[in-house]
Amino acid sequence: MKPEKQIKFPVFTSGIIQYTIVLLAITIVVFLCRPLATQQGYHIVSFILLFVVSIMAAFLGIGPILLASTISALVWNFFFIPPHFTFNIAATEDKFMFGSFFIVALVNGVLTNRIRRQEKLVREREYQTNALFQLAEELSKARSIERVLEVARGNFKNLFNATSFFILQDGNKNLGSYNQHVNEPFAEIVDTDIVKWVFQNSRKAGKYTDSFPDSSLTYYPLKGAQLNPGVVAIEFNKSVYEKNDAFWFAYFTQVSNALEREFLGELALKARILNESDKLYKTLFNLISHEFRIPIATIMGASDTLLMSHTSERNREELINEIFKASGRLNHLMENLLNMSRLESGKISIHLDWCDIIDLLNKVVKTLKLELEKFQFVSEISPEMPLAKLDFGLMEQAVYNLILNSCQNSPAGSTIRFEAEYENGFLVIQVEDNGPGFPPDTLDKVFEKFYKVNNSKSEGLGLGLSIVKGLAEAHQGTVKAENLLTGGARFTISIPTEIPDMIEIKLE
Question: Fewest CB within 10 angstroms: 187, 278, 465, 483, which?
Fold first, then answer.
């Protein structure tokens, strides 16, 4: 059974000023038209009164127009229809004319008022449609939850002079304010119990509503297609609420969809990052386990042999040498992991001091003595090479990793070349080898963490070159890799440095 359609009666909301204007206007018309109260002129007065009623209908409410129509008919009868100053109408045609005047004045006034209200309604709808269009355009460009909230709060303030406060969920339906820059007093009056009720029931509540009407704020649910982002609390006056209540639904739908889009985007990004992190963790765990297992197994095997058997002095030296090499490799792996951790955390500190590049190279060569025995190592450093201002320990690690990388990727008996020079305010260090080089499409990847060229048999975690890059950048410098035309690879480190004053004096 269909519910009966309710009849809507006109609402009289006009103030006393509008009724006063009606009485004053008709009084002035009667006073000005008194000379027309003749047998031939009183018909003209009816048209003048109809015109005045039409004019007032374009500006006044329905109540004043009904009053204007009634009074204009009565005063026309009383002052202008013979006999004058009486409501009695002698002629039958005047009676008919009076009735027609009253009906025409009433209908004309009501219709004119209705047209005016319809025009006003059309203008309001046009304004609201334009507001929704602008909101949709701005929200489509917003690429974060913070930006969506900024757009929404700005539109609320500009369009309705209303202050808004958003309470969003965290993905597990736990509500909390979303890092908003609003004044603390407003944030403090938000009722968390009402917020939870609105979120759970997906219904508006608070001021001007049937639920929790004593609240100082009005709360609206933000409802999305797949999830509800949260709740918005708004502070505005009653006229704004009543005038735009039907408009809020479309407005909040736009905001909710934008928040849901960004919210789901963030969840998808977090899930993707978590998945990639899990893959990286497994890869790194397997890689570290493999790289650590080899030297540990070497140390344990050699130590067990030394402890459990009687070996010749030559074998003992070889076993001790293997233990030393495996310990050095293990120590190198640990240093690379620690250095990468320091570089990524930004906790690495640079202590610049004047350093001799020849001393730095000699220390690296001494450390890599066993590795370099298989190669022809050539160093080219000018005798006039000035001191360089850098962190000796960190640069030692960078050069160590470059030379070790060449040792691991070059055939035995080949040449590894080290060059250093001072050029236009930069210390330029180059390490060249005669290895296979790099595939052209991998040159921009060789400095990435854990990256190893396909089919590479070199030892290590793939951290050495990425550490070299980090240490060079810590010195405000750069590093690049390139393939040589004759075969092999070249690494170039460029670090800005100063020349000591004593060198400048000697040059002068």
Answer: 278
* DSSP conformation letters of 232-297: EEEE--HHHHHHHHHHHHHHHHHHHHHHHHHHHHHHHHHHHHHHHHHHHHHHHHHHHHHHHHHHHH
Categorise residue 488: left if φ over 0, alpha if ψ from -120 to 50, beta otherwise: left
Confidence band, pLDDT 50/70/90 cuts, at residue 287:
low
Q: Where are the alpha helices (DSSP H) in 38-144?
A: 42-57, 62-79, 92-141
Least confident of 202-206, 246-250, 351-355: 246-250
Residue 229 · residue 170 · CB < 8 Å: no
Residue 397 has pLDDT above 50, yes or no: yes
CATH class of the domain defined by 353-507 = alpha beta
Q: Which runs of E-coded beta strand occur in 363-483? A: 376-381, 388-390, 415-423, 426-432, 478-483
Question: What is the residue type of 378?
Answer: V
- Token readout for 72 is 């204009």
Q: Which long-range contacts (CB under 8 A, 24 or more apart) does 82-87 make?
A: 82/39, 82/42, 84/37
CATH topology for the 142-271 domain: Beta-Lactamase (3.30.450)
Decide if 164 contacts 148 (C-beta within 8 A).
no
Whether residue 448 is predicted with pLDDT greater than 50 in this model: the reply is yes
In one letter, which amino acid is 112?
T
pLDDT at 2: 44
Q: Give pairs for 83-86: CB < 8 Å, separation 24+.
A: 84/37
Q: pLDDT value at position 242?
A: 65
Distances, alpha carbon 5 to alpha carbons 2, 8, 48, 111, 246, in Å: 9, 9, 40, 23, 20
Q: Which strand ranges, in their side-by-side order, compose the sheet holding 175-177? A: 175-177, 163-169, 230-235, 218-222, 205-206
Per the confidence metrics, is the pTM higher than 0.85?
no
Q: Which two tokens stand for residue 312?
A: 């010749």
154 to 11, 20, 257, 299: CA distances (angstroms): 34, 41, 17, 68
> Which residues, at least 6 apart from 151, have a Cβ–Cβ distance to it below 8 Å?
135, 138, 139, 142, 258
CB 275 within 8 A of CB 252: no
pLDDT of residue 267: 73
Q: Do residues 136 and 107 make contact, with C-beta atoms less than 8 angstroms apart?
A: no
